Amino acid sequence: MMDSEATVYELSVPGRPGVSLPLLDVPETSFPDVPLREELRLPELSELDVTRHYQRLSQRNFGVDSGFYPLGSCTMKYNPKINEAIAQMAGFAQTHPLQSEDSVQGNLELICRLQDWLAEIGGFDRVSLQPAAGANGELAALLMMRAYHKDHGEKGRTQVLIPDSAHGTNPASTSMAGFDVLEIPSDERGNLNIDALRSACDDTVVGIMLTNPNTLGLFEEQVREITDIVHSCGALVYGDGANMNALTGIVQPRDLGIDLMHFNLHKTFSTPHGGGGPGSGPLGAAGPLCDYLPGPIVERRNRDGGGYCYDIVIPDRSIGRTCTYFGNFAVLVRTYAYIRMLGAEGLKQNALHAVLNANYLRVRLQEAYKVPFDRLCMHEFVCEGVATGTGVRAIDISKRLIDYGFHPPTNYFPLIVREALMIEPTETESKPTLDAYIEAMLMIADEVRKAPDVLKSAPHTAPVGRLDEVKAARDLKLCDPTIFT
Ligand SMILES: *Cc1c(COP(=O)(O)O)cnc(C)c1O
To answer: Judging by beta carbons within 10 Å of its beta carbon (0-12, 13-18, 19+), is residue 125 exposed, middle or buried?
Structure first.
């Protein structure tokens, strides 16, 4: 048996290569006189050893295909396998982005239809599929706001309003776009504090970045008032659409006063994600902002003699590209398949079930965990993973969940809840799965009282135990330093 912790370099046995090269059948010649990398040590393993090594590593991964993964804000729902089969069809997978427009009309039609569907879901006038992720969509939207205000002679607008519950990408995108962040506090019901918003709004404000439902999983009860206040000072409203899984088919964000919004296709529309990609963060716009969208986008045109054809266009005042070609096309194909499969009614049912599942967990877990904002939640909720007097923290509860076979929830976000555990079950989980999770969480709450040390040293069953996360970040080792000397 091979050592399960070993790297391919440690498993390597000199003289045991995985490939046999054919005998030389051309005249031997010498390399030109350039220095060769003699120090490069490549691992030598048989094909079977390599196969087993990577198979073993892959089995250590925890993914949504291996178990319940209630990672709040990330919407880790099941990704139907039919999407993969469709994305791999030759007409999609084997086309080249530089092919002529007339040779890829089918792909352009798919892009055009998806633009239309997302526009309808959000209530927007135009959608660009360019941005490669939510954060990329945020930056594009802020650049659009900047261009829009500049065109209206408003150079004094430099501040972006961001609720204190916001995702970290919101302030990060704001400073990348060259603006200042002005944080707006939440009130005791978990809504944005309207008085604080009102006093922040003046002619120095670019716009607000609003997540609804917010990252506490709560619907902003005064959302229309918020967007009216922001508009009344000449500023714009950006919607962070990462939480659209609670709203698809039920509310069009445009009706709430949102001018611009990104969708997270890899969250709401069920395309595989994790570990940083690939994602897609299409941007929807309303009214005059449409002209500023990143391009290219696809437009439908009546063809002479009947039918349609599809043209690649750049919006008139476009901020330009945010990504190469058409963004992450394979993600767009998966989203297309997903929406097509569900239809409008299916998308609405998804949102209703996501909300139902979250509320079921919230009410059952409230027996043992404090939920600071005690009201109906949307697709996720936040509780406190803390037990007074035991020294147990949210991270301990999360690590212990691994022993019970579940992926931990999001920890320590949003920042306004102490020891936050943010739980998002999604609509794709069954009641038995939710019940098993509840049982594990309640057993852990029991352990907090009876055996807190078991929690503090968890996980006990994972291939590696508790990691020193600070050291891992400060003293990052991406490869074995002995390999390249
Ligand atoms: C995930 C997320 C984002 C960023 O989206 P990415 O696709 O990861 O860049 C922004 N806001 C919220 C609320 C999110 O959950």
So the answer is: middle
